[in-house]
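Technical note accompanying the year-one report. For the benefit of new consortium partners, we illustrate the data format agreed upon in the data management plan: each record pairs a sequence with a C-alpha cell string. No post-processing was applied to the example shown here.
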Amino acid sequence: MDLSTVVASSPSYGSKAVDAYKKAAATAATVTAYAVLARGVARELLPDELRDAARWAASFLLRGGARMRAPRRRRTFVIRRYDGDGYGDNSLFEDACTYLATRVDPHSMSRVCLSRRRSRDDDDVDYGAFGYCDGDKEGGGGGGHVMSMEVGASMDDVFEGVEFTWTSMTNCDGHDRQAASLELSFDAEHTDMVLRRYVPFITASVEDARRRDRALKIFSCDNGGSWRGSSYHHPATFDTLAMDLALKQSIVADLDRFLKRKEYYRRIGKAWKRGYLLYGPPGTGKSSLVAAIANYLRFNLYDLDLSKVESNSTLQCLLTSMPDKSILVIEDIDCCFSAITRSGPEKSAEQNADERPPDAPPPPMGITLSGLLNFVDGLWSTSGEQRIIIFTTNYKDRLDAALLRPGRMDMHVYMGYCCWEAFKTLARNYFLTDDHPLFPEIRELLSEVDVTPATVSEMLLRSEDVDVALQGLMECLQEKKQGKEIGEGGKA
C-alpha cells in the first residue's frame, strides 16, 4: 500500500476514534449518573451501619484484605511445675497435666509418652507429673494407661470455639527429663476468657475426675475416740436403688446442686454442708440409699456409734477431725437420744429405763443432744466444708423436735414400702427384664398390701428362674393380702 492510499484512508480511522471516544464518554457519564443516584438512594434509605459496612467492604476489596488485617497478638502463660521458690508443688501444673492427659490423641500426635498408672487403695493418689487418663481398669483395683506429651511437644485444645496451644517445656539446663513447665499460648484478645473460664474449667474438670476415681473407705469410731477405716465396696447406686423414681431423681438433683454451690454458701454465710433425715419402716432401703449417695459423690463414710463416745469433748474431736468431702452417718438416731435431754441426763435412771425403747443401747452419760447439734448447725459446723450429714430412724415421731427444726436436716426422705417403680428396678436388677406376664397382677397386689423392698428382694433371690421367682412373689403378696383382709374383717 502506497502513501497516498494511507492518507486517503486516514479520515475514516479518525472518525472511528472520535465515535469510540464519544461512546466511552457517554457510558462514563451514564455510570456516574447511576452512581450518584445510587449514592443518594443509599443515603436516604440505608442506615449508617450498613453504609459503613459497605464502605469497609469496598475498601477491603480495593486495597487487599491481607494488607489491612493487623497481625494478631499472641500471649503465653507459663505454668511451672514448682512454685516460685522452687520447692513447693504447683497444683495448677498438676491439674493442667491431668487435664491434657485426657486430651491426648495418639492417632494425631507423632510422639506420645505412654506409661501405666499404679494401683491404689487409699486416698493419696499420685497422679504423676502429667496426670492421668482413664484407660481400661483391671480387677477393680486401679491401673490403666497414662498418655502424655513428650517434653518439647505441643498440642492444641479447643474451648468454647477458641483454640489454645499447650507446649511441654524442660528446664533451662536441660537436665530434667520431665516437664518443668507448661506454656499456654493463645490470641491476646482471649486473656479474660482464659482467666475467668478456661482455667477454672480445667481445675473443676480435674477435681470431678479425681473425685469419681477415688477409692472409698468407711470409718468407725473406737472406744478411744478415734476413727478406724477400711475399704468400702458397697455396690448400691441410684440406678439399682429400689425406690420411687421421682423421689430418687429429686435426691440426685439436690446432691448435684449441693456440689455446685460453694460460692453460694460463702455468699450467704452458711457452712457448706447438707443434712438428710431418712425415715421409714425397717427394710425399706435406708442403708442402701446411704451407700448410693456415697458412691455417687465419692465421699468417704464416717459411721458414728454414739454409744462408744464418752463425752461431748470426745464427740467434738471426732467430728472436727473428719476431712472435707465426707459423709457422717448416725443410724437409728431415735435410739441414741430418746433418753437424753438437750442439756444432759437430768432424768432418773428409772425414768430413762421406762422411756427408752427396749432395743436401745444404754445412753452415753457424757453426751448431750446439744453437743451434736453444735456440729450440725452450731459453732462446730464450720470446721469443714462439703460435708453430708445423714440421720436414719424407723420412728420419726420419737425424735426430739430440735433435730427436726428447719435448717438442721435440710431434706426429709421417707423410705416407704415397695411401690411399682421400686419393684421394676428390682426385677431389672435380678433378671434383666422390664416386662413379664405376671407384672400386671403383681402391680395390683403391691398397691393393696404393704411389703418392704427387702422382702421383695428376698423372694426374688429364691430362684434364678424369673417365672419361678415371680410366681413365688405373687403368692407371697396374695397371702399378705388375705391376712390383711382377715385382720380388717376380724374373721378367719
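Partners are asked to follow this layout when depositing records. The two ends are 142 Å apart (CA to CA).
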